[in-house]
Amino acid sequence: MKNWTTLTADENRILSKHFSSGRQGHKIRYVVVHHNAGNLTIPGCYSVWQTRQASAHYQVDAAGRIGQLVWDKDTAWHAGNWVANCESIGIEHADISSSPWKVSEATLDNGAHLVAAICKYYGLGRPSWGKNVFPHAHFQATACPASLNGSQQAAYIARAQKWYDSVTGTTVKTSVKATTRKAAKKVGTLAVDGYCGQSTISKWQQVMGTTVDGIVSGQVKPSGNWGRPNLVTAFVRYDSGTGSNLIRAVQKQLGQSQDGLLGPGTIRAIQKHLGVSQDSYFGPGTVKALQKRLNDNKF
Ligand SMILES: [Zn+2]
What is the whole-number distance in angstroms between the Cα of residue 161 and the centre of ligand 1? Predict the structure, then answer.
């Protein structure tokens, strides 16, 4: 999709026939989900629907690219039910296998994302199967949309809800960002005391352009061979070891592999970068050099 907010497809290939202009006074109330019963490209759908009395608003191909074939303001002929056609947006999905029918992960993800974007755009609420998202089979005796009303249905609607939540959560995220930006402003010149506390980490995050929360998150607990206690420890959040975005940004700048973990190898690279002795210990000498560097608003 070129733009989820404005519902701009990757490719517009608008049919010249086999749809009805306008919505006959109906409002868009739900999405109807279809499958191709085949693996069609966007131009492939265009050819089929130009020669057959059928159409849908969107096609999601096997690579997840989305084509628009009937404008949303017009009525596509997809549900086998006139009122349903007038009240809905029809989305077609390409199959990557026929026995059993199955759509690709890219098709599932982009189709679900499109459902979420449509629900948001037309104010239909959070995607819910049987409420504002229906299988074609709801309106007509048909096996369509096959896996999307069977083995892949739960995954499809869960993904649509995830996308919807991430879109509608935008305001929350913005306000959190504004708060951290406010907090970030408070970190001015650091005392060069060799203590890597919350303000030093915040300042470091500020300089590296990562989220400012004063915590090195996602760190794996150091193993015994570190010997000496690590000064960063108080501001490290230990979890599964998915790493910290701050450390990832540092590793990227230093040309290290970006696992986001402040391990001995990364500490040595930091020490080399700061021009202090490389003893793999993130101690006061290293932290003082870091603080001096950060006070010049660079790393
Ligand atoms: Zn169908």
Answer: 22
CA neighbor of 212 nearest in space, from 115, 120, 294, 90 = 294
Give distance in angstroms: CA of 10 to centre of ligand 1: 22
Average pLDDT of the residues in 106-122? 97
Q: What's the 153 CA to ligand 1 centre distance in angstroms?
A: 14
Burial class (CB in 10 A: 0-12, 13-18, 19+), 286: buried
**Peptide bond before residue 127 is cis, with ω within 30 degrees of 0:** no
Sign of the CA dihedral running 142, 148, 150, 151: positive
DSSP state, 129? B
Q: Where do the domains of the chain lie, and which CATH numbers do they carry?
A: 11-168 (3.40.80.10), 173-295 (no CATH)
**Percentage above 70 pLDDT, the chain:** 86
Question: How many angstroms separate the alpha carbon of residue 34 from the centre of ligand 1?
Answer: 4
Distance CA 121, CA 8 (A): 12
pLDDT: which is higher, 250 or 211? 250
Prediction pTM value: 0.59
Tokens of 152: 């892949």
Burial class (CB in 10 A: 0-12, 13-18, 19+), 83: exposed
Cα–ligand 1 centroid distance for 90 (angstroms): 8
Average pLDDT, the chain: 87
Map tokens 């919505």 to a residue: 23
Q: Is the alpha carbon torsion for 69, 75, 77, 81 positive or negative?
A: positive
Task: Return the exposure string of 133-159: e unless at least 16 CB atoms fall within 10 Å of the residue's CB, then b.
Answer: bbbbbbbeebebbbbbbeebbeebbeb
Q: What is the pLDDT of residues 68-79, one digit of tens each?
A: 999 999 999 999
